[in-house]
């Protein structure tokens, strides 16, 4: 038994009372502001975290390169055969009684012609 349609009105009020609540809208506005628009938003934090990870990986790579370079420098100072090898390979140095021939690979390669199958 309905009392003049009051049950339907109560359902309507219960369903949509959240949308009429000012604290709900303030909370939604604050959340949207913090996620998208604020200078300290979650999106900017995410981008900064990605940048930090990228810089850390570059730092680790450079540390490895520095270790390799230190090893090579120490080897240059202590090993005269290695020093001679580097001088010959990188600076094209030679002894007085030697002739030097530099062989390089060409950068252009000839392509093989495509084989066309005839039916």
Secondary-structure blueprint of this entry?
Elements: H1 6-20, H2 22-37, H3 42-78, H4 80-91
Give your account of this protein's structure.
It contains 4 helices and no strands. The protein is mainly α.
Structural class by secondary-structure content: mainly alpha
* Terminus-to-terminus distance: 85 Å
Write down the Rg.
Answer: 37 Å
What integer is the average pLDDT? 81
Number of strands: 0
Low-pLDDT runs of 5+ residues are none
General shape: elongated
Q: DSSP strand (E) fraction?
A: under 5%
Give the % helix.
55-70%
Helix-strand sequence = HHHH
* Assembly form of the protein: single chain
The biggest beta sheet is recorded as: none
SS field, number of helical segments = 4
Keywords:
elongated, 119 residues, 4 helices, mainly alpha
Summarize the structure.
This protein is mainly α and 119 residues long. It is built from four helices and no strands.
């Amino acid at each position: 038994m309905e009392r003049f349609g009051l049950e339907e009105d109560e359902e309507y009020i219960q369903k949509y009372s959240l949308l009429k609540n000012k604290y709900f809208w303030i909370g939604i506005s604050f959340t949207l502001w913090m996620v998208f628009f604020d200078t300290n938003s979650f999106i900017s934090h995410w981008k900064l975290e990605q940048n930090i990870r990228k810089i850390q990986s570059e730092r680790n790579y450079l540390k490895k390169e520095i270790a390799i370079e230190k090893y090579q420098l120490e080897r240059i100072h202590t090993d005269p055969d290695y020093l001679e090898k580097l001088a010959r390979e990188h600076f094209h140095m030679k002894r007085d009684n030697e002739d030097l021939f530099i062989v390089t690979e060409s950068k252009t390669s000839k392509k093989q012609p495509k084989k066309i199958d005839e039916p």
